[in-house]
Amino acid sequence: MSQENVEIVRTAFAAFDRGDIDAVLRLCAEDIVITQPPELPDASPEQRGHRGVLEAFAIWPEQWEDYRIEILRIAPAPADRVIVTTRTRGRGRQSGVEVDMEFSFVFTIRDARIREMRIYVREDDALEAAGLSE
User: Would you place residue 33 in the very low, low, confident or very high pLDDT band (cuts 50, 70, 90)?
Assistant: First the structure.
């Protein structure tokens, strides 16, 4: 089950990367909950359902040119979770400033669907939330 969960998340990232949002939504539960980190400006702290997925996905690409997200690490975690650390790069549409940041995600998978996605600015916080910190 753990490797299957990792593959579900990997497939969702690949679909997002190629712009296939319908494929991402098919991997998400209808009642998915997305929690954004409080450090992110202009982001609602929580989104729900497929509408929330669309809202969450629109935050960064709409604000950046040349938006890219790369998986740095991905691993199963206890309680049907998957932890992913990514590098996000782009250039601010209005400012032109280059941005290169790491974000970590904790996904909860049940019945082969993403039920929850929590986003963290610090990988240590994500590891603790996923039950992987010492």
Answer: very high
Q: What are the C-alpha distances in Å from 131 to residues 14, 79, 114, 117, 128?
A: 26, 9, 18, 15, 5
Tell me the pTM: 0.91
| Closest C-alpha to 95, from 67, 66, 64 | 64
The residues, ordered by sequence, that sit 6+ positions from 104 with a Cβ below 8 Å of its Cβ are: 83, 84, 85, 86, 119, 120, 121, 122, 123, 125, 126, 127
Residue located via tokens 């409080």: 38
pLDDT at 63: 74
pLDDT of residue 113: 98
